[in-house]
């Protein structure tokens, strides 16, 4: 458990639950305790946000209201060239030394969404007409040309790729918080930032080819028909090609959305794993808006960790990045690393589908509110007013805010329909129900087990605090590993099966993945939280006294240390 530093005070007051409707209760976010900083310049350090998890966000609102501000855009005049590209490898001498975007003044105020007469309609990448592909290639070709003819044009291919690096690899401090990086991953900024990023990318492409209705395609990896690299990206002579990909994953290799299938090649099993992963991250594992969107992240807070991200960000989104990147590079460039991901044209088709998942999630029936409003967090403006800087299609630097991107149709685009078979892919129990007591005989138990490393598969007994229709969360605490390494492991509950790569079964609880990244300051450890309510239902163990947790390393397990495992109620009594 994290200990509290004396300068921090935990505020875990519970508000009166009777005053809330059940849908409000269901919508409580995952972060339960808040801290008030009494020193340290108002900086909220996540290490000190107790992950006791049981607590309520509720009463702490007073503190956030008083002290927190939304994340604001970087000061472009203060880009630290060392903050980025620190993983540049020797063969890439042709690349610029840093990912600082060109500096210019912003217009006052926020970007206003232009009026439009026709919706841009984003199509599925595996169904495109040759004409469309040609257009798309022309657009990327034009952007690549700018890299040569006018490297400072912010619409150039590399300049656009650098935007991603600039917001993820630490060239910028948060304004007013020296030494604290801006990071748009692993939090509720993830969906909005990438939506705006694609919005301008699409408009720039349209501008460069003179087609104001040009729409980015989406890589339809959630649909079995789209579960391979779309062919148009795999033609070596095409501007859409990128050599820095995993060459063993060229078509017809089937994608792995859960990253857990390093050694699976059976395409049918892979597709079943993928549909299960989609069901879980879109529906089964999601108990609140925050579960899907990601944890709050506000001004002055140290950059969030992988485990703070929303279910979809941590799941298929990360899976595709890692699956696509070239594993022969130390850092899995291009797609497998934040600083270089935007240099693969596939990135934008990938994120188009990530964005599509956000639009679909909003339409799924559920028991909680999907908006980040005051039922979800004390101060929704911490989210709504977070802002970023982008260059528009006319090279103007513009300031945009989260609130203005929450309805994609107002931004003038929509997605062509495609089947979503994962919606009904709730996992079932494949094996005969096992007696947890029998399983426990071969498992480790007691405090001495920790910290444990994942050089091999580990089985650990974890006591359950509640019974009946239990709504609990499995917490893997204080996970540490070398941030420059790709790391991944899977977690199963009461699993007697010896097939840890088959994820299409009810015992699969979830996975942990770390994309290699650079950090300027020492990182705090991660805490992985996996909702168990539906898993308990699926294998009918809500009434048991304990569960047996199996942790199966997939990539670089020997690098991982886990400080503790526990189960806590998701919403405290
Ligand atoms: Cu900004 Cu898919 O990452």
Explain the layout of strands and helices:
Elements: E1 8-11, H1 22-26, E2 34-37, H2 61-67, E3 120-122, H3 130-149, H4 157-166, E4 173-174, E5 177-181, H5 190-208, H6 267-284, H7 289-293, H8 311-324, H9 346-363, H10 381-384, E6 387-391, E7 397-401, E8 413-415, H11 436-440, E9 452-453, E10 458-463, E11 472-479, E12 487-493, E13 508-514, E14 526-531, H12 533-539, E15 546-555, E16 561-562, E17 564-569
Parallel strand pairs: 3-8
Antiparallel strand pairs: 1-2, 4-5, 6-7, 9-16, 10-15, 11-14, 11-17, 12-13, 12-15
Residues 164, 168, 185, 194, 317, 321, 341, 351 line the site of CU-O-CU linkage.
Considering the chains and any ligands shown, give keywords for the structure.
binds CU-O-CU linkage; 573 residues; 15% strand; di-copper center containing domain from catechol oxidase; 17 strands; four-stranded antiparallel beta sheet; 2 domains; alpha+beta; single chain; three-stranded antiparallel beta sheet; disordered N terminus; globular; Jelly Rolls
């Amino acid at each position: 458990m994290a200990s509290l530093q004396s300068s921090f005070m935990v505020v875990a007051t519970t508000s009166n639950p009777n005053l809330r409707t059940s849908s409000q209760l269901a919508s409580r976010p995952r972060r339960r305790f808040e801290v008030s900083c009494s020193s340290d310049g108002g900086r909220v350090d996540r290490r000190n946000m107790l992950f006791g998890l049981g607590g309520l966000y509720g009463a702490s609102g007073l503190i956030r209201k008083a002290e927190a501000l939304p994340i604001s855009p970087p000061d472009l005049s203060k880009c630290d060239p060392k903050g980025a590209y620190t993983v540049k490898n020797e063969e890439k001498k042709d690349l610029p030394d840093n990912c600082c975007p060109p500096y210019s003044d912003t217009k006052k105020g926020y970007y206003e969404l232009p009026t439009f007469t026709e919706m841009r309609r984003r199509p599925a990448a595996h169904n495109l007409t040759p004409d469309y592909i040609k257009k798309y290639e022309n657009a990327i070709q034009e952007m690549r040309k700018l890299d040569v003819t006018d490297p400072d044009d912010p619409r150039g291919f590399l300049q656009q790729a650098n935007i991603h690096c600039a917001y993820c690899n630490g060239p910028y401090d948060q304004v007013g918080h020296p030494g604290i990086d801006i990071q748009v991953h692993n939090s509720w900024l993830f969906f909005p930032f990438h939506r705006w990023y694609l919005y301008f990318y699409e408009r720039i492409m349209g501008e460069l080819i003179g087609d104001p209705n040009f729409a980015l395609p989406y890589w339809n990896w959630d649909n079995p028909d789209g579960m391979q690299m779309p062919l148009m990206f795999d033609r070596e002579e095409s501007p859409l090609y990128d050599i820095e990909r995993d060459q063993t994953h060229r078509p017809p290799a089937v994608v792995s959305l859960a990253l857990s299938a390093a050694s699976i090649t059976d395409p049918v099993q892979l597709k079943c794993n993928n549909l299960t992963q989609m069901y879980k991250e879109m529906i089964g594992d999601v108990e609140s808006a925050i579960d899907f969107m990601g944890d709050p992240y506000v001004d002055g807070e140290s950059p969030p960790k992988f485990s703070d991200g929303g279910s979809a960000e941590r799941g298929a989104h990360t899976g595709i990045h890692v699956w696509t990147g070239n594993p022969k590079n130390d850092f899995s460039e291009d797609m497998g690393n934040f600083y270089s991901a935007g240099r693969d044209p596939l990135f934008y088709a990938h994120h188009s589908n990530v964005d599509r998942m956000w639009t679909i999630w909003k339409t799924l029936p559920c028991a909680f509110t999907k908006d980040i409003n005051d039922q979800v967090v004390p101060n929704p403006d911490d989210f709504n007013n977070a802002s970023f800087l982008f260059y528009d299609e006319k090279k103007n630097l513009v300031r945009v805010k989260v609130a203005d991107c929450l309805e994609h149709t107002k931004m003038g685009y929509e997605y062509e329909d495609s089947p979503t078979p994962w919606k009904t892919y709730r996992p079932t129990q494949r094996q005969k129900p096992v007696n947890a007591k029998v399983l426990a005989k071969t498992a480790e138990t007691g405090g001495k087990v920790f910290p444990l490393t994942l050089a091999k598969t580990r089985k650990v007994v974890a006591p359950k605090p509640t019974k009946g229709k239990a709504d609990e969360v499995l917490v893997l605490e204080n996970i540490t590993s070398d941030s420059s390494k790709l790391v991944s492991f899977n977690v199963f509950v009461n699993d007697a099966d010896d097939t840890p790569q088959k994820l299409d079964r009810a015992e699969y609880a979830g996975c942990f993945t770390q994309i290699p990244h650079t950090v300027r300051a020492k990182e705090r450890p991660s805490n992985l939280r996996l909702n168990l309510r539906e898993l308990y239902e699926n294998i009918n163990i809500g009434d048991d006294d304990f569960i047996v947790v199996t942790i199966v390393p997939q990539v670089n397990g020997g690098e991982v240390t886990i400080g503790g495992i526990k189960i806590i109620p998701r919403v405290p009594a």
